[in-house]
Amino acid sequence: MNRSVGIIGLGYYVPDRIITNKELESFVDTSDSWIIERTGIKERRISAETEATSDLAEKAASAALKDAGISPEQIDLIIVATATPDMAFPSVACIVQDKIKAYNAAAFDLSAGCSGFVYAMITAEQMIKSGLYRYILVIGAESLSKILDWKDRNTCVLFGDGAGAAVLAVTKEEYGILGSHMGSDGSGAELLKLPAGGSRMPANEKTVSEGMHFLSMNGNEVFKFAIKVMGEAAVKALEGSGLTADDIDLLIPHQANIRIIQSAAKRLKLPMNRVFVNVDKYGNTSAASIPIALCEAKDAGLLKEGHIIALVGFGAGLTWAASVIRWCKEDRTFA
Ligand code: UT7
């Protein structure tokens, strides 16, 4: 039986509010030139006070369902990859299930930092391949602005908010996801974390006064890890697909820092015109960054029938993940 699984619909949403580097200069000790030179970021989107991660996810999900041409009732499962849920529980996925009226869907969140969307996509692929489910909605959604210390220049200039979604289903034979790779190294857990508000350090006056509810990161160590792992993960996923880096038509890397993206391209010997970049517009939107980029690449006409698209991410955990897709322009399910 044909069990090639691919993306049959895409959607994304970013909040309207833009914070430029210039605006950051007005309240934190930084400069437009430092941020551009060290990260490639020019601006980022910030959600409204009343907007939570599920609100962003809902909009991206609705757009993806429309693009796929299926109704919410047809969705069997919703997986939301996020590090910034509305609250510790219930899951964002359950809140989205109710919002979009996906009455027949099971729902859960997945935590794998910025690799979350690719982890979720691979999980969904296996559930469709096994015959358990027909349509799965995979969402990467983040409200990182809500966990940033806006006085900390080491972190607040880097991140932004947004959501991207994909509908997965059986697709044309020999198209869709060809090979994937996932990895983790929990010994790096301390490098990127939200220290307080969990069972290790429950919320109290001290944690709040010491700013322990803000994202904390050792940027230099995460940078070194990212440089090492991005190319390696992509190569492993390519090996699993029977392809080499030469075959990649478009690399869609996690959008954290232009220097990390350039280094991954160099490792794969890919010219930058075969690498999708939008970190300048959105900063690092963690689990949302790859699906937003994928969606923008599609809107720009960069995903053509038969194209080999490589997705690769890294993030908190530490985690990394990559998938290689043969793009099916038809956007139709072959189930
Ligand atoms: O999705 C995964 C999440 N995280 C990442 O991907 C982040 C990975 N890491 C990075 O992207 C980079 O390490 C950063 C962008 C975070 C930092 O860039 P860097 O080139 O590694 O800079 P640095 O941390 O070595 O800092 C260099 C200097 C320091 O000053 P001194 O000590 O040399 O005087 C920093 O204090 O730059 C200073 N600095 C800043 N200056 C202006 C740090 N942040 C800023 C800032 N504006 N926003």
Features:
335 residues, alpha/beta, five-stranded mixed sheet, four-stranded mixed sheet, 11 helices, binds oxa(dethia)-CoA
Summarize the structure.
Helices cover 32% and strands 23% of the residues.
Count of helical regions = 11
- Multimeric state: single chain
Helical percentage: 25-40%
Head-to-tail CA distance between termini? 10 Å
User: What ligands are attached or bound here?
Assistant: oxa(dethia)-CoA
Strand content range: 15-25%
Give structural notes.
By secondary structure, the protein is of the alpha/beta class. 32% of the residues lie in helices and 23% in strands. It is built from eleven helices and 13 strands. Strands 1-7-6-4-5 form a five-stranded mixed beta sheet, with helices on both faces. Helix 4 links the parallel strand 4 (77-81) and strand 5. The mean pLDDT is 96. It binds oxa(dethia)-CoA. Oxa(dethia)-CoA binds next to helix 2, helix 6 and helix 8.
Please render the helix and strand layout as text:
Elements: E1 5-13, E2 18-20, H1 21-25, H2 32-39, E3 43-45, H3 53-68, E4 77-81, H4 92-99, E5 106-110, H5 116-129, E6 136-143, H6 153-156, E7 161-170, E8 176-184, E9 192-193, H7 205-209, E10 216-217, H8 219-241, E11 250-253, H9 258-267, H10 279-282, H11 289-299, E12 308-315, E13 319-326
Parallel strand pairs: 4-5, 4-6, 11-12
Antiparallel strand pairs: 1-7, 2-3, 6-7, 8-13, 9-10, 12-13
Helix pairs in contact: 3-4, 8-9
The structure holds oxa(dethia)-CoA.
Oxa(dethia)-CoA binds next to helix 2, helix 6 and helix 8.
